Amino acid sequence: MSAGGERRREPRPGGERFEASEAQARALASGVRLRILRVTLDEPLTNREIAGALELNPATCLHHVRTLVDTGFLEAQEPRRGRRGAREIPYRATGRSWYADTPVTGNGMVEAFVAELAQVPADRTDVTMARLGLRLPPEELAEFRSRLAALVTEFHDRGRDPSAEPWSLFLVLHPDTSSRPRD
């Protein structure tokens, strides 16, 4: 807390949106890699700790960690001594993935969302879900997209309060293929 009693928020890394390279887009197309970025967002974790948190084989996890490091989405921190004095390298998400424009072609985000949601205890009553079908003219759809983007960006840019409970939001706006188009 600051001298005035307010909680300090960790600043978000500033950045401009950028077109992801092919390697960066492939890195972000993996649900496992997205989950690695999520678990390393607030604290640096070693490969062993990441593998344990995500129930992955450490060798498989290391492959994904190296891919994220190579593409700039994860960075190695200062080495530390782990169990039995072994040298371990903790990794932390850089926050750059937020600014990467990638083609929406894979199911990586959906896979990460489903895996994370499956870990939420069934007795939690504070999970909010909504599903909405819309029919908006192009100008209203553009307004809807713009307002959603502005709201999400506003909360992203506020930073993270390390003492607050972490929450996750998954939002998709897509053409509804279950409805018949109007003539």
From TrEMBL:
A Pfam family matched in the record: HTH_20
Coiled-coil zones: none
Region (Disordered): 1-22
Biased composition (Basic and acidic residues): 1-20
InterPro entries: ArsR-like_HTH, WH-like_DNA-bd_sf, WH_DNA-bd_sf
Signal peptide residue numbers: none
Designated name of the protein: Transcriptional regulator, ArsR family
Organism of provenance: Serinicoccus hydrothermalis
